[in-house]
Amino acid sequence: MRSLSIVLFVVLWGVGSLQPAFSEQSDERQSYLEQALNNVRVYFLTVSPVDLAKAQGVLALSGHYRLTVDGKWGPGTEKAFEKMLDTYTAIGGSGPDWGVNSPSDTDRFLDWMDQAAHAHLTGGEFPD
């Protein structure tokens, strides 16, 4: 009986000690997503509204954007990009070869979005 108590103590203590690490990871991920979203927003300040309208169209095809495709950055566009970035980083992380770590990485993300929209429409797997 004593060994069972010790095992339970170790298991419960171990589970309790993991909680802060998960919440820190969650905070770190949220911070990364906010920075990545800002990088996407900055990118679209430097290109034509037509480019943003194309991206809104891809977001619509993927099921994340249900508003008018107008080439303007607004709350709906931001929310749709946030959802896509969440999926993008969940699949590939935020490393130098995958994440949106600067505005110039947005092109890579947009290419992935095109592939993801195609997968969504055809029932295929999201790209990785």
Q: How would you sum up this structure, described in words?
A:
The protein has one domain (28-122). Helices cover 72% and strands 0% of the residues. The radius of gyration is 20 Å and the shape is globular. By secondary structure, the protein is mainly α. The longest helix is centred in the N-terminal third of the chain and has 44 residues, at 2-45. Mean pLDDT is 83; it is low at 1-24.
Q: What distance separates the N and C termini?
A: 49 Å
Tell me the number of strands: 0
Low-confidence spans: 1-24
Portion of residues in helices?
Answer: over 70%
Continuous helix count? 4
Approximately how much beta-strand content do the residues carry? under 5%
Overall SS class: mainly alpha
Keywords for this entry:
128 residues, mainly alpha
